[in-house]
């Protein structure tokens, strides 16, 4: 097993492409700390004496692109929890799809075959339907990162309801990383106005709400495995795709796309999720250490995300892509479309009103 060290943490904090190896640990979270409960648990919790606890190894994974925010987030948490506990609680972390794609990882997570997952919200919808609230198009576009964070990670009704939904699915939501950066659109034709999206063959994730949004604005969404996208764009079988700036850079899509359009249609957010059985089996001292590691990583990574986003956009522009920005009227025009309004109603109904709660709490947090 290759443990994450403080050197990895330093690499993540300087936005380097962190490399993290994996291995097989002999202990899993489930059942590994039961013997440390009772008096030893109370002493460890009070004094932070992790040495009195049995060592625990968790397995974590993501399928993000190399150097993407999700990978850096997962690796930073692994480094921090190792440091906090003096190596007593460690995360054996496998990035970049080493253990499978998002759906594979989430199935492994539910089965407690892995214990931690980091990924974007869209694939989680199939496992926790309420996460479809993040599919509301452009719902976050008018707010800054601090305002959004109050609702997503604070003691809000939205966050509490969402955590309850995760628990019902056998999962524990540890935190959501964002800083008001978004998924963007790349294309081989300029998308200056809403009319330019008519008939646009665009690759999307296999998410019905995402597809419904693109259909609502006149485009022709096509789900496709990520590893096929570059060649489909290169051959002309697709005209466009949508993703976060770091993913676009990592996949070198500037080689096959000319335009980068700042559509800001979906918040670029990475969730850290844990199997609930694994979480419940951890000694409270370990739970506290992991919570602390996630909180610190969220704070440090969020401060960097806006700069990461700007740097990646500048990188794409320097490589020849033309950036298209939009004024408020562009978003207002889209949100006023009957088909988009209907999609809002459909999504809100599917998440039992959580969409309305999100909008209300965002507005209240903005003051």
CATH class of the largest domain: Alpha Beta
Bin the helical content.
40-55%
The largest pleated sheet is described as: 6 strands, mixed
Strand order of the largest sheet: 7-6-8-5-9-11
How many DSSP helices? Answer: 14
N-to-C SSE string, H for helix and E for strand:
HHEHEHEHHEEEHEHEHEEHHEHHH
Distance between the termini: 48 Å
Overall number of domains: 2
Shape: globular
Poorly predicted residue ranges: 1-47
Average the pLDDT over all residues and give the rounded result: 88
Relative strand content: 5-15%
CATH architecture of the largest domain: 3-Layer(aba) Sandwich
Helix/strand class = alpha/beta
| Radius of gyration over all CA atoms, rounded | 21 Å
The H-level CATH homologous superfamily of the largest domain, spelled out, is: Bacterial extracellular solute-binding protein, family 7
Number of strands: 11
């Amino acid at each position: 097993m290759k443990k994450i060290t403080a050197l990895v943490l330093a690499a993540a904090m300087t936005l380097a492409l962190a490399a993290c190896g994996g291995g097989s640990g002999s202990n899993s979270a489930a059942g590994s700390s039961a013997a440390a409960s009772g008096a030893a648990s109370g002493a460890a919790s009070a004094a932070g004496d992790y040495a009195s606890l049995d060592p625990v190894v968790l397995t974590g994974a993501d399928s993000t692109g190399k150097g993407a925010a999700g990978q850096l987030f997962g690796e930073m948490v692994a480094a921090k929890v190792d440091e906090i506990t003096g190596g007593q609680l460690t995360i054996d972390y496998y990035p970049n799809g080493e253990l499978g794609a998002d759906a594979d990882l989430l199935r492994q997570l539910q089965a407690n075959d892995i214990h931690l997952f980091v990924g974007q919200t869209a694939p989680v919808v199939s496992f926790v339907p309420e996460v479809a609230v993040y599919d509301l198009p452009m719902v976050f576009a008018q707010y800054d990162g601090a305002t959004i964070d109050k609702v997503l990670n604070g003691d809000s009704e939205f966050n509490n309801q969402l955590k309850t939904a995760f628990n019902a699915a056998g999962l524990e939501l540890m935190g959501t990383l964002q800083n008001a950066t978004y998924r963007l659109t790349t294309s081989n034709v300029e998308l200056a106005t809403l009319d330019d999206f008519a008939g646009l063959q665009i690759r999307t994730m296999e998410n019905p709400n995402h597809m419904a949004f693109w259909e609502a604005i006149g485009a022709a969404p096509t789900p496709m495995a990520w590893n096929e996208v570059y060649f489909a764009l290169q051959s002309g079988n697709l005209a466009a795709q949508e993703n976060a700036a770091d993913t676009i850079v990592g996949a070198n899509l500037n080689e096959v796309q000319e335009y980068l359009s700042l559509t800001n249609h979906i918040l670029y957010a990475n969730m850290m999720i844990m199997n609930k059985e694994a979480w419940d089996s951890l000694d409270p001292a370990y739970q506290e250490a992991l919570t602390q590691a996630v909180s610190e990583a969220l704070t440090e990574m969020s401060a960097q995300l806006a700069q990461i986003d700007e740097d990646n956009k500048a990188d794409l522009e320097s490589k020849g892509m033309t950036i298209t920005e939009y004024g408020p009227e562009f978003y207002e025009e889209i949100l006023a479309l009957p088909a988009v309004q209907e999609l809002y109603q459909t999504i809100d109904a599917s998440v039992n009103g959580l969409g309305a709660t999100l909008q209300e709490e965002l507005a209240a947090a903005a003051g």
